[in-house]
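Hi there,

I know you've been waiting on this one. I reran it after we fixed the sequence typo, so this is the corrected version. Both the input and the resulting structure follow.
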Amino acid sequence: MNRRRRIYEGKAKILYEGPEPGTLVQHFKDDATAFNNQKHEVVDGKGVLNNRISEYIFNQLNTLGIPTHFIRRLNMREQLIHEVEIIPLEVVVRNVAAGSLCKRLGVEEGTQLPRSIIEFYYKNDELGDPLVSEEHITAFGWATPAELDDMMALAIRINDFLSGLFLGVGIRLVDFKIEMGRHIDGDMMRVILADEISPDSCRLWDSQTNDKMDKDRFRQNLGGMVEAYREVARRLGIRIDTDRPAATGPVLVK
C-alpha cells in the first residue's frame, strides 16, 4: 500500500487509490479517538477487529440487497471498496437512550425508546458535528429530498437487520452511526452505505448484564476495549487469529 497514492486519512482509517478505476482501498488503523479527537490513543489490534467485523456485516447486507461500498476484504486490515461521494452527514439510529440523547433531553440511560429515532448530524469537526434537521439538510444542499428518503429507508432496513443479528448472539443494539455516499453505476446514481459498521460506530450492550462492548469502554475509561471487540467478533463467529476470509456464522448466546 505504500506505493499507492493516499487519497484521505481520517481518525480511524486511511483511503488509498484502488487497483481499478472507481475503487479504493480502505485501511483500518489502531487509533482510538473520542470527543472530536480530544482523546486519542493507539490500541493494538483494534483495526484488525473492526475490519473483520465490518466485513462480516457488510457482506450480510450485500446479500440482503442493501447497497454498500464493500467489495471484498484484501487482508487483515484492508478492504476493497467502491469509490463514492460521501454525503456530509452522519446518520444516527437510536433504539435505546444513551450518549448525547440523554444529555440533551434528560432521559435516563438505558431507557427503551418508544420507537427507533433517526437523527442527522452535519459532518464538521470544527463545529463538533452538530445535530441538524431535514430542513437544514435540504436548504444547504447537503442532500436532496429524494436522497434523504433513500437514506432514511436504508437506515431503517439496516437497523432491522442489525437488531436481529445482535439480539441472536446476546447483544443489545443501543444505537449506531452510519455514513452514506453517492455511487455512480453506469448511467445510474444511487445512495449506498459507506464507511464501516463496527463497535467503533455502534453502542452494543450485553443483553444479560448491560456490559458495554463498544467504544464507550474507551470514552469512559472502562478498559478492556479490545477484549470487548474480540468478544463481539467471537459471538458473530468471526475468526481473527487467521487470515481466512470465511466466518462460521453467529454463535447463539443462551
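Quick highlight: The helical segments are 46-63, 100-105, 134-139, 145-167, 216-219, 225-235.

Best,
R. S.
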